[in-house]
Amino acid sequence: MNTSVHYLFSERYFDNICPKDFTEIKKVSSFFLITVLCLFTFTGAMAQQALTYGGDPSGGAPYMFTDPENPNRYIGYEIEIAEAVAKQLGMKAEFIRTDWEAIVASLKNKKFDVIFDGFEPTADRAREIIFSKPYYLFRLQLTVHKNNKEINSLEDCIRLNKKVGTLVNCAASRLLEDKKINYRPYADPVGAYKDLEYGRIDAVLMDIPMEMFYARSNPNFRNAGEPFHKGAYVAGIRKEDTLLQKKINSAIDTLLRNGTFEKIFRKWDMWDDFQLQLVDQKEVKYEITEKKFDWIEALIKLAHAAGITILLAFGAMIIAVILGIPLAVGQMYGPKLIRYLCNIYIEFFRGTPVLVQLLFLYFGLPVIGITLPGWLTALVGLGLNYAAYESQVYRAAFQAVPSRQWDVSYSLGMKPFLAFRRIILPQAVRTALPPMTNDFVALFKDTSTAFAISVWELATAYRELANATQSYLLLGAVVCVFYLAMSLPLTHYARKLENKLKRSSQKLEKAPGT
Amino acid sequence: MIKVDSLYKRVNGTEIIKNVSFEFPAGKVLGIIGESGSGKTSLLLSLSGLTYFTSGKITVNSLTFTGESNGRDKDFIWEFRKQSGIVFQHLYLFPHLTVLGNIIEAPLHVLKEERGLAEARAVELLKKVGLENSKDKYPDELSGGEQQRVAICRALIMNPVVLLLDEPTSALDPQRSADVRTLLNDYVKQGHTLVIVSHSINFLRGLADYLLYMDEGEAVEFGETPEVLSNPRDSRTHEFLSHF
User: Fold this and answer.
1) B118 and B205: one domain?
2) Domain check: are B105 and B73 in the same one?
3) Does any CB of chain B come closer than 8 Å to the CB of residue A416?
4) Of B139, B158, B177, which residue is a domain's last?
């Protein structure tokens, strides 16, 4: 190493002693220089070229969704739109997966440069970010089950007080909220249409692209009335990026006129003459929905959601505490087959995520004809799950009671059931109580998984309200207070009970025996 | 009368008790001695009716438990169990009940006695062992000797024909162990029958009327205490006694 540095600095020495080597080194170093330069220009070009865009694939087809042929890839017309726009700008589109409800916040936090995700301009969003011009005009379609004869418009839903499903925080949900219609927000269109099919809701109001993809071909559904509303899909851009907005607008103009977008929309079966307005007119007017927010209403909603959380937690714990007993007894004392079945049950529920179990119960059971409402599914699902845990708490607690306690009881003439009830059980309960309290607190928090099946519990409420207000911090604090207000009294009471049971050993410390 | 006839107990192919026979009259005390693992405790559990044996017969008072009736007649087994009270080496008092609660549990729920009567009988027993002031304490507030006496009271309140004790002094210092001995002596004087498993010859000397020496599941030596101690017939007994 040292010598080679020396060579470089003493050319003369080099010339005289080994001229051949020197030219060699000259060649090598110039090669390095070129490579480094290339690398710089290359990465420079890369940085310039990438247009990062955010979207949520759980919104489903035809926007962006997992390619059924290749689960590692997302496809959808929004992806093609984003790629076309980026190409037009001489950039490379780079997809950043994000959460729909936090999409505006993520854009503002510079997680990506632009939103492409069937994104509608709304008055509340306009306060936070700016939009491109529209590249697609959508309408809304109300869908009902084919056996439903009474609903033919949104007005019918109001009149008959019917439950309408739609996506979280979209034009349809705001419209429904505005008209004070009883509605249920879903995280994805599949869930909403499945629930319509299973009769959990009465109608679904959805943007036409989704309705086309998920409902139009389903023979169990029919359109309730004509499409209405005129909304627009735009790209969302940060307020300060006006230059990018200008560039994207002119790219959209070009791509609309040269037929690139039409080709994409036709491919996805979304093209209709309605879109011609975008091509023909310079300024297209569209309807804007606004999400209204009022703190008192939000607190009432949170309280309501907290009530559901309490119902879920207590209901599920009651199921778990009761069902855990036969599971534990079966596993410990049952005949071989029962023991085997109990083990399968316990290992299945402990070894798979509760979220997957809830989805399985919610969408799987209707296939065999059992359709439970979401809250009941969550209650039963969490109950079944925690029963597996409670059974193990019981098992450990019973095994902690010395077997000689049974012998002593028998020798005193106590029959097994009496011995169990009077002698074994009270000792086991002492051991089981602390871990059970622990599980209950964990269950309280696990109720938030009910979000996956659109149960309006506290965590769902938080996500939705925080999204509406963009005040994640303040609402988050409020929600934490709600959770703590529920779990702290619980742990307090449980500790008191534990201490009461331990009372004798505490006395021992104060007044030891002889 | 207690009579054991050709008793065998096999667990997983291993003989824990091999052809044990002996007999002694009611109102007497039998001491069972031997090394750990010699089958002493298994024999005691068989006498109590808590565990089954493979073959042979056990007669306690008027009831005879045979190997053949194993598990067949549940009612008989419960009747047989009632004849004896047992106090284990580690006393296994019920930790969630007070001293009084431990003693009256079986009278209340098995004999269906009135609480007042059961409590009165319990206090009477506690007085005999000098623990009447501790009746509201919990087991973990008592010393080892006190727990021993409570365990004995708990067994005695069911009026067993025979009281079985497994290593009653193993956890006690010499003074406490002498106290327990006095207590048991008083009890025998009232005409009760005792079977005591112990590794301590000194504890049994002057208390046990008969001695049974067990080794590897066999009844090596059985006889009246003075005779076994002074003139053992088997060399193994001699060898065992020479350690004391």
Assistant:
1) no
2) no
3) no
4) B158
A404 and B88 within 8 Å at the Cβ level: the answer is: yes
Phi and psi torsions of A223, nearest 5°: -75, 130
Task: Quickly state the pLDDT bin for A341 (edges 50, 70, 90).
Answer: very high
Q: How many domains does chain B contain in total?
A: 2
Please tell me which of the candidates A411, A414, A422 has its beta carbon nearest to residue B85: A411
Pairing of strands B193-197, B29-34: parallel
| Residue-level pLDDT at A367 | 85
Full-model pTM: 0.67
Q: Does A511 touch chain B (CB under 8 A)?
A: yes
Which chain A residues are closer than 8 Å to B106 by Cβ? 412-414
- The chain A residue lying nearest B108, using CA atoms, is A414
Please check whether residue B210 lies inside any domain of the structure. Answer: yes
CATH (domain of B62): 3.40.50.300
3-class SS of residue A205: strand
Interface of B with A (CB under 8 A): 45, 48, 50, 78, 81-82, 84-86, 88, 90, 92, 94-96, 105-106, 109-111, 134, 137-143, 146, 154-155, 158
d(CA A495, CA A293): 40
Range of the domain at B223: 2-83+160-241
| Rounded Cα gap, residues A165 and A188, in angstroms | 11
Per DSSP, helices labelled H in A138-207 are 154-159, 171-178, 189-197
Domain boundary residue, one of B111, B132, B158: B158
The secondary element (H helix, E strand) that includes residue A371 is: none
Give yes or no: residues B19 and B136 share one domain: no
Q: Do residue B196 and residue B225 come from a single domain?
A: yes
Cα distance from B88 to chain A (closest Cα, Å)?
8
Statement to judge: residues B65 and B104 lie in one domain = no
User: How many Å apart are CA A355 and CA A450, to the nearest integer?
Assistant: 8
For residue B136, give how far its alpha carbon lies from the nearest alpha carbon of chain A (Å): 11
Q: Cβ of A405 under 8 Å from any chain B Cβ?
A: yes
Alpha helices in A258-294 (DSSP H): 260-267, 276-280
Dist. CA A360–CA A366, nearest whole Å: 10
ipTM for the predicted complex? 0.89
d(CA A397, CA A167): 46
In A, minimum Cα distance to B176 occurs at A514
Same domain, B153 and B165: no
Would B88 be classed as within a structural domain?
A: no
Q: Do B216 and B127 fall into the same domain?
A: no
Mean pLDDT, residues A423-451: 88
Q: What is the mean pLDDT of residues A139-150?
A: 92
Whether residue B76 lies inside any domain: the answer is yes
Q: Which of B86, B89, B112, B154 to mutate to test the interface with A (most CBs of A within 10 A)?
A: B86
Stretch B40-67: mean pLDDT, rounded?
84
Spatial distance between the Cα atoms of A78 and A112, rounded to a whole number of angstroms: 15
Q: Which of A119, A96, A120 is nearest to A109 (CA)?
A: A96
Q: Say whether B94 and A423 touch across the interface (CB within 8 A).
A: yes
Whole-angstrom Cα distance, residue A275 to residue A279?
7
Per the prediction, chain B carries an average pLDDT of 85
Residue B28 lies in a domain: yes
The backbone region for A499, taken as left when phi is positive above 0, alpha when psi lies in -120 to 50, beta otherwise, is alpha
How many pairs of residues across A and B have Cβ atoms under 8 Å apart? 79
Chain A residue with Cα closest to B158: A412
Domain identity same for B50 and B165: yes
Helix (H) or strand (E) holding A234: strand A228-237
Percent of chain A at pLDDT exceeding 90: 41
Q: What is the pLDDT of residues B105-128, one digit of tens each?
A: 989 998 898 999 999 999 988 888
